[in-house]
Amino acid sequence: MLTYILRRLPQTILVIFGVTLITFIALQIGGDPTYLFVSERASPEEIIATRIKLGFDKPLHVQYLNYVLNLIKFDFGDSLYFRQSAMTVILEALPATIELTLFSMCIAVFGAIPFGIFAAINRGKWIDGTLMAIAMLGQSIPNFWLGIMSILYLSLNISWLPISGHVPFLMPILQGNLLEGIKNFPTTCLYLILPSFAVAFYSLSRNARLVRSSMLEVLSQDYVRTARAKGLSEYSVIMKHGMRNAWLPVVTIIGLEFGFMLSGVVVVEVIFAWPGLGRTVFNAIAHRDIPLVQASVVVISILVILINLITDLIYAKLDPRIRLS
Q: Which CATH number characterizes residue 178's domain?
């Protein structure tokens, strides 16, 4: 396992290097980035002074080296809109996005597993057809439309759930206030239901179809028929022999889904006024806050890369053929 980890780490570092290079080049595409940091009425002397202060007068390879060194020190520069460190803004918004992503993943995973298993063991029956039709519908509905319809019918019309708002759960825990975080958890879940379902419905539908196909393939194997011939209960056959071996493709797609959700909640956060990193990036783009957008892209990319690395390690743990190959 250690050999596998050491073999994967250089690839991860190379991808992170590629992300930093792309974000650096993106800043240079529009021309001299100095003009992003000065007002339109700035004099030539002020522009030159700002260019020297920010290091934009140096050669590009020196600028990139300084950029990487600053990233290593978690120095992403200052936000032009919030007038404070971009990293501070990101760290304040990131816990809310992680809350939304984790809650969405719980819905997508723990909803898809029984959904897919139930469809597989009833293959060809009307139950299977109904569940798969719902799954197909879930993959066809955009999350922003589902979010808007949820607000319209479940919040405005019948007032079952709040339209927007956020009570922090993760941030108090990270700040060392465990009791406050636990106290806030029920209220946080109440505000999370609608946005999480809007984010998770597509993934739930796709994962359910994947679980179903994996289960159908496993249930047709000889060792499953042998387990049934030995007189084992259907529950033991499905859960101990079937689901355990059907997990491998499911684990892979779950890791990819987590990264997809983490980087794809921007629209849902804006619709529900959720104070996460996606909404922060949206506001930064609206106000041309390039340093904050750049920092957010790097942070989200690194998180997605690390999640994919962890997924690969879990996959290798579940299947010895992966780590021994």
A: 1.10.3720.10
Is 251's pLDDT higher than 80?
no
Give one DSSP letter per residue of 96-116, joined into a string.
HHHHHHHHHHHHHHHHHHHHH
CB 96 within 8 A of CB 53: no
3-class SS of residue 85: strand
Q: How many residues does the chain have?
A: 325
pLDDT digits (tens, 9 = 90+) for 24-79: 787 777 666 777 777 777 777 777 887 787 777 788 788 888 888 888 887 877 88
Give the ranges where the chain is alpha helix by DSSP (H): 2-29, 44-54, 60-72, 86-121, 126-138, 143-150, 170-174, 178-219, 222-229, 234-236, 244-263, 266-271, 277-286, 290-318, 320-324
Which residues are bridge partners to 78 per DSSP? 85
Nearest C-alpha neighbor of 297 from the set 24, 82, 36: 24
Which bin fits 84, alpha (ψ -120 to 50), beta or left (φ > 0)?
Answer: beta
Structural domain includes residue 135: yes
Please tell me whether residues 216 and 126 are part of one structural domain. yes
pLDDT number for residue 269: 85
What residue numbers bound the domain in which 318 lies? 87-324
Higher pLDDT, 58 or 1: 58
On whether both 153 and 261 belong to a single domain, the answer is yes
Which residues partner with 174 through β-bridges? none
User: At residue 255, does pLDDT exceed 80?
Assistant: no
Helix 290-318 to helix 277-286 angle (10° resolution) is: 150
